[in-house]
Every structure is written in C-alpha cells, then in structure tokens.
Amino acid sequence: MPKALVDDILKMGFDAKQFGNPDDFDLDSEGGYVYDILTTIESMVRIDMGNAVYDAALSDAANDSDKRNYIYIRSAEQYYCLATLWQRRIQFVDQNAIVQRSGDIPVNPQKNYERLEQTYIKRAEEQISAVSGGTVDGSFSMGVVESGHFGATA
What we know:
Blueprint: H1 6-10, H2 33-49, H3 51-56, H4 64-95, E1 100-102, E2 105-107, H5 109-132
Antiparallel strand pairs: 1-2
Helix pairs in contact: 2-4, 4-5
C-alpha cells in the first residue's frame, strides 16, 4: 500500500473536473483514478528504495531513521503523483483543444503545466535521494576509501 494517500492528493487541489469527471477519481481503493496512480508510483519507489527500506519506513516506526524515511518516501510519492496528474492534465487540455487568447497573444496553459510537472519530478527525486543516499536522475557519484594496516594519524 502506498505511503501517500488519495486524500493527500485531493487536498492539494486536484478535482475530477480537471480530468473529465471520472466517477472513481477520489475512490481510495483499487480502481480509483488517483489510487491507481499511487500504486504504480509505489512500485516505482520500491524499485528505487528496495522493499526492505520501503516496508520499514513507517510513521510509527521504532527508530528515527525509519520515521524519517517514511516522511521522505511519502513526500516523493506525493510529488510523483502530482507530476503524473499534471501530465494527464496536459493531455486532457490538449485533447479538448483548449487554447484561449489574451489580446493578440495566445495563452498556452500547457507550458505552465509542464513546468509544474518537471518541478514535482525533481522534488520527488530529491526526496528519494535523501533516503537512498544516491541519485535517481541518471547522474552518479563516486568516492575513494583508503585503508591499510597502519593506524590513523592525527
């Protein structure tokens, strides 16, 4: 079950009207519009985190590290869901060919939606990196460890 909840996403201002009024938009179980997005994202985040880390991350976990991971993972799921919803919103608007005009300058809401989508993807990746200690944006990091049989010197 995803860490992020359908109610979390609804509180962020999305509404069924923005997506053509699907009946199951706010259904908090399998088959729900938002819920199905969250379960897909859960699978993706589990791949990035690993099942053990994901499962140990609970709001009422015994240790602070797992509680911290819960907050980051839940936040990452919310951001990925927001990005997905903005992408679907772009598709819905394009599908319905809604382009308004302001004087002689066409107003294209899709550009703003695309910026929001990219912002949320970046934020989600930052949350995952905070838990995994790695990167999820395709870059890499490298370090070197030296050791030997001599003790450390000050």
